Amino acid sequence: MTRQAREVLMRTQEADGSWKGDYSGPLFLSPLYIIGLYAMERAPDAPLRDGLLCYFRAHQNEDGGWGLSPESPSLVFTTVLTYVAQRLLGVEADDPDLVRARAWLLPRGGPLGSGSWGKAILALLGLYEYEGLTPTPPELWLLPKALPFHPSRMWCHCRMVYLPMGWLYGRKARVRQTPLLAELKRELYAEPYERVDWKAARQRVADADAYTPRSVWLRAASRVLGLYERLHSKRLRARALEESLEQIRGEDLATHFICIGPINKVLDAVVWHLARPGGPEVHAHLERLPDYLQCTPEGVTFNGYNSSQLWDTAFAIQALVASGADRALDTLARASHFVESQQLLEDSPRPERFYRHPSRGAWPFSTREHGWPISDCTAEAVKACLLLEPLGLNRVPRERLAQAVEFIRSLQNRDGGWATYEPTRAPRWLERINASDVFANTMVDLSHVECTSACVQALVAWRKVQPEAPVEEAITRGLEFLRRTQREDGSWEGAWGVCFSYGTWFGVTGLACGGAAPEDPALRRAVRFLEEHQREDGSWSETLQGCRERRWVDGPTGHAVTTSWALLALFACGEADSRATRRGVAWLRARQGADGRWPREPLAGVFNRTGGIHYDTYLRTFPLWALSLAERAQRRAFPPIQVLTLPPLESGSLSP
After folding, report:
1. Can you tell me the distance from the alpha carbon of 218 to that of 223, in angstroms, rounded to the nearest whole number?
2. Residue 315 DSSP one-character state
3. Residues with a known catalytic role
4. How far is CA 300 from CA 13, 24, 44, 235, in A?
5. What is the DSSP code (8-state) at residue 60?
6. Exposed (0-12), middle (13-18) or buried (19+): which is 652, by Cβ within 10 Å?
7. Which of 282, 302, 283 is nearest to 292 (CA)?
8. Average predicted confidence (pLDDT) for the chain
9. Does position 652 have pLDDT exceeding 50, yes or no?
10. Which residues contact 360 (CB under 8 A, 6 or more apart)?
């Protein structure tokens, strides 16, 4: 069974040595893409249009709406954008599925009930008024950098989204109005558009979209910014718009017009279309937009990143080595070449000017062209390289690995943990002015168990090959962070995977790698937690709802990925021969198909607690990894019997 799973993983390797899977999931991205094209007076060709519509139809909920992901309850934010996108693609208003969508939307206020990002996008189309938005003036970029709420202190994904939003808000940008847009105004609102109280609409959010309540601090900030908007200086506004354009240019050049993510990718393209119509920036953006398109069995959608290639490849290497590197040498050699080719060899252009952390020696989540380095991606790449080194397959020189280690050390936070792209720049209280409504933890890049564990593991691995490396203090502080963040029930809450099985796997592997023995109290609590959540059939199962509710929520059936994470955690705790482990391994083996694969499963990835995302390669990587460790443990427990062989007898040596 392990052999078949290994062959599946090897067979699905890309020609460049990577693994490039489906990274779709967020349902609001395709509508944004379509709206962005419309704003730039373009439209997808017929095959792409049909593929996008198929995907929309495949993921409409029974109540008529659309959620943040295919497994999420309906939100006004996603539903109104998806409705508008389909109308822009030529679907008529009397289409039965759109009639169902309106029946769900209108009682919830239509666009008035949408989360703030949806309102901002609709304002660009003239389907919502800027007076009804939480103000995002571009002048924030002109504030002293030392202020805790300067945009450069926000989590980089957040500031890169609000950067083009601020430019569009500052310009009160609006596309050319058409009869279709006039029809949409009549379809989307329960009252005449001209009678809407936009001031009141600013604070209005439907219950479905109000995951993160608007705090008194956010409401106060909104009032202050609203007052500023009425009194702002035109000269200062023009200067702020130019500064925003310069920051967008810096992002474009550093990422080769890929951008950090799909939201700012589309919005940056629209900004350039409005600021420099037909200019080279517009053409450069249009060339890279297809990087985000993803073909799926349900149709075509827009990915949550340009890819997850480096991340997936680093894990695939570790799984293949665990399964028996001698059986996959050619595959591992190609993978090593890909990893080497994606390391960032220099800092981004003018990093201080564009508030970028030095990136030399790091690895991104996807590809070198993307240009944004990440702590745990760098750590997993370092771990993979050091695993390949004894096999003679590592292509990254020690000097460059040392640069990666220095990058990891530079990202460690004061609390001992690691965040994602940068050290934490803002105070925790800044999260109180999170205006996204539908997401949590968008403002501050805080330390995470996954990032911290991966970085600790990489530093420990580096210390083994470079005993003199000054990493001891960083390791110690990282381990202390892991111990502090363990929950009372023995688990860790994951931030980027669903959810407690994922976080607990990272938590225990970090501690075990750092020297925690199987009898360590933290590991024993983690074992009890996993045993308590094992299903009767031996599997484990978690759903995206658990991320939203911040508690373990079982799915209707076991999940191979969740079970694999639980098993990997148990192996790290020294539980290779426990009853829970044996039952989990038996279920995983029984679940595997004759072709070596496991059946398709619910989403295993998440961001900001509510955004589900699909990691296509997880189902090919983690079950292989878990079963490989099980087989290795079995071989240690039952080594092959050594049969004594005697030399052949000479003729006549024995008498009858």
Report:
1. 9
2. H
3. 376
4. 22, 10, 12, 44
5. -
6. exposed
7. 302
8. 96
9. no
10. 344, 345, 346, 347, 403, 407
